[in-house]
Specification:
five-stranded mixed beta sheet; about 375 residues; abc type-2 transporter like fold; 15 helices
Length: about 375
């Protein structure tokens, strides 16, 4: 049981150490550059200089018409090597998966499809795609038309009739109707950039103390390991939140990305992401005790996984099962989807809550490992 006086003394020590770390940040221009200038520089690079191509994606096919012609068309989608199809018979069955981003498109074959087809009336098939991934959305729409063409040829061979030219597709792009790639790239790149910055900033903290010889003086004081770690995290937490706010402002007012979520949700997601980012940096710093090695390791373990395994560049569903398993411990995976959801869809808490929970859990794991990697006394 911790007495009130002990808790008060602990709080004073944390505040004192945090103030000392804050002064260190202010005196070191490189920290300010890393926290504010570098994120904007990389954000401009991602926002203006990168375009993505898509490949095989998961879609839903809703078959509301149980007759053979409609079933034949749905089987054509299932046979396509470009789509991983989830079959349903009601739109509501795939809506949650679609909103959560687990499906990138939905093809709806309406209940009157066969009837209109045989009467030579326009037989509309609706294609709904996720505009938060513009390239993927365009991919779904284009290849759906290709599936139509293949099915039309098969229809002609099987029935001996003229191809059903009356079939029409009606694409709809949710969340990003104009398929502006910047709307997808800027939130995703913000997550990647802040992964690098958050990890890099804190990766130098404890290593800097060891190199300058001040860690011995700190360990000689009554400061505990928890107090030491909290005093290191608090200033960089505030710095990271400020940097994320700056990136959000730039996304909206410089790049014109719509923000459909709430400030409360954005703050909750940003705060949750700080845990694994700073926890990973502190763990690297405590384990290496060398600023150069820590910075290289932070870039290697922060940048590459955040870029390649977060779903920002490559679809996670297209990765092999072992790689998909690895992505579950990559904080950027949850941060990318959360930011894209907030900017383009809004406060979809069914997606945000699990992401926040997973980021906090990964952060707790990193901080626990850092706690045991930080010595209690000088060896």
């Amino acid at each position: 049981m911790i007495s009130g006086q002990t808790a008060l003394e602990s709080g004073r020590r944390i505040i004192t150490m945090a103030r000392k770390e804050t002064f260190q940040i202010v005196r070191d221009p490189s920290s300010i550059v890393i926290a504010f200038v570098l994120p904007l520089l990389l954000l401009f690079l991602f926002g203006f200089g990168i375009s993505l191509d898509a490949n095989t994606v998961r879609i839903g096919v809703v078959v509301e018409d149980a007759r053979p012609d409609a079933q034949s068309l749905s089987q054509s989608f299932q046979a396509s090597r470009y789509f991983d199809v989830t079959l349903a018979f009601d739109r509501r069955a795939v809506e949650e998966e679609f909103v959560a981003g687990r499906l990138r498109g939905v093809v709806v074959i309406p209940s009157d499809f066969t009837e209109r087809l045989r009467s030579k009336a326009p037989a509309a098939v609706q294609i709904i795609t996720d505009g938060s991934q513009p390239n993927t959305a365009q991919f779904v729409a284009n290849y759906a038309r290709g599936v139509y063409a293949v099915w039309q040829n098969k229809y002609l061979r099987d029935t001996g009739q003229a191809p059903p030219a009356s079939i029409e597709s009606q694409p709809r792009f949710w969340f990003n109707a104009e398929l502006t790639s910047r709307y997808n790239l800027v939130p995703g790149s913000t997550a990647v950039v802040m992964t690098i910055i958050g990890t890099l900033l804190t990766a130098l903290v404890i290593a800097r103390e060891w190199e300058r010889g001040t860690m011995e003086a700190v360990l000689a004081t009554p400061v505990s390991r928890i107090e030491l770690l909290l005093s290191k995290i608090v200033p960089y937490f505030a710095l990271g939140m400020s940097s994320l706010t700056l990136c959000a402002i730039a996304a909206v007012f410089v790049f014109g990305v719509p923000f459909r979520g709430s400030l409360l949700a954005h703050g909750a997601v940003a705060a949750a992401f700080q845990h694994p980012a700073h926890g990973q940096g502190l763990l690297i710093s405590a384990a290496t005790k060398n600023q150069f090695v820590a910075s290289q390791l932070a870039l290697f373990t922060g940048f590459l996984p955040a870029t390649l395994l977060s779903g920002f560049v490559f679809e996670i569903s297209s990765m092999p099962a072992p790689i998909r398993a690895i992505t579950t411990i990559i904080p950027a995976r949850y941060f990318v989807t959360s930011l894209q959801t907030l900017f383009l869809a809004g406060d979809t808490w069914s997606l945000l809550f699990p992401a926040i929970r997973n980021m906090v859990a990964i952060g707790v794991l990193f901080l626990a490992l850092t706690y045991f990697a930080t010595p209690k006394r000088i060896d």
